């Protein structure tokens, strides 16, 4: 079992019974006094941030500034040295969340068919076999995804495997979904397709999403807000609002407002790179 698979197992095994309750409270993430060091390197020092509910937030910044570390701390995958992270006042283990790893090859269980990979978190939550079947079928139908759920990961394309990973994260109806460069291992054609799929999923689910991206155009295109981080110790260089209409499409890329926002983000990014 890989680190990603083990993390996924423990993440869902740790879900309390209350996590299966149908009442969904939209999270509003409050981060206060967050500090994190790796050795002598200070990545976060007394860092504060609020993440709005029901928005897609892209996290962008210089290489190694701490983008993945931030979402991994919020998602409880790595410990914080100090500080508090609350979801509408609740702790992480009181809410449902999903995590999509960059490396779908390691994240999916190779010995399970697509269906069983998607249904895995429900099994960990002790949802009955019949209900698991119904919920997976409902999710696939709702998303309008055409995929043979009997296939094993090795029989699927990279994009299909990542789609299965995303569906696995969504099947629990998470209040918040974390995605760490989910498309970076895909080819360009599949990346464009998956961006559209993610936008559709976001618009249909309204789930708060936090996406780490290395691609500024992608970060702005998908986001309601772009969180621009400085080099570590990371601080918020800007938290740009992207209010271009959805659904966004190829025409959005040449929309003057989109072009302006992208240039604005690039300017801040370059300023932060020069500063270091
Ligand atoms: N487990 C670890 N042990 C030691 N140092 C680490 C560890 N994880 C991350 N780092 C360091 O912490 C810093 C932030 O890492 P992180 O992966 O969060 O950055 P990032 O902004 O996501 O990077 P990238 O742009 O390269 O994806 C980097 O300098 C990295 O080398």
UniProtKB/TrEMBL annotation:
Alphabetic keyword roster: ATP-binding, Cell membrane, Ion transport, Iron, Iron transport, Membrane, Nucleotide-binding, Transport
Family annotation (CDD domains): ABC_Carb_Solutes_like
Keyword Isomerase: no
Residues covered by the ABC transporter domain: 29-256
Signal sequence segment: none
GO molecular function, one term: ATP hydrolysis activity
PROSITE patterns, A to Z: ABC_TRANSPORTER_2
GO cellular component, one term: membrane
Protein name: ATP-binding cassette domain-containing protein
Organism from which the protein derives: Pseudolabrys taiwanensis
């Amino acid at each position: 079992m890989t680190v990603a698979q083990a993390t996924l197992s423990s993440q869902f095994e740790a879900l309390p019974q209350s996590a299966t309750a149908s009442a969904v409270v939209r999270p509003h993430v409050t981060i206060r006094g967050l500090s994190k060091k790796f050795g002598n390197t200070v990545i976060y020092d007394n860092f504060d941030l609020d993440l709005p509910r029901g928005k897609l937030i892209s996290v962008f910044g210089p290489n190694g500034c701490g983008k993945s570390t931030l979402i991994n701390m919020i998602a409880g995958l790595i410990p914080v040295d100090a500080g508090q992270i609350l979801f509408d006042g609740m702790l992480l283990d009181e809410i449902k969340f999903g995590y999509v790893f960059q490396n779908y090859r390691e994240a999916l269980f190779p010995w399970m068919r697509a269906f069983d990979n998607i249904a895995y978190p429900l099994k960990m939550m002790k949802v009955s076999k019949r209900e698991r079947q119904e919920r997976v079928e409902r999710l696939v139908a709702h998303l309008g995804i055409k995929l043979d759920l009997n296939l094993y990961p090795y029989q699927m394309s990279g994009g299909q495997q990542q789609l299965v990973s995303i569906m696995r994260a969504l099947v629990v109806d998470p209040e918040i979904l974390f995605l760490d460069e989910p498309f970076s291992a895909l080819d360009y054609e599949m990346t464009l397709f998956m961006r559209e799929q993610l936008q559709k999923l976001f618009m249909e689910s309204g789930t708060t999403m936090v996406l780490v991206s290395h691609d500024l155009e992608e970060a702005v295109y998908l986001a309601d807000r772009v969180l621009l981080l400085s080099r570590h110790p990371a601080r918020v260089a800007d938290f740009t609002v992207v209010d271009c209409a959805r659904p966004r499409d190829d025409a959005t890329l040449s929309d003057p407002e989109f072009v302006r926002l992208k240039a604005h983000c690039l300017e801040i990014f370059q300023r932060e790179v020069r500063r270091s």
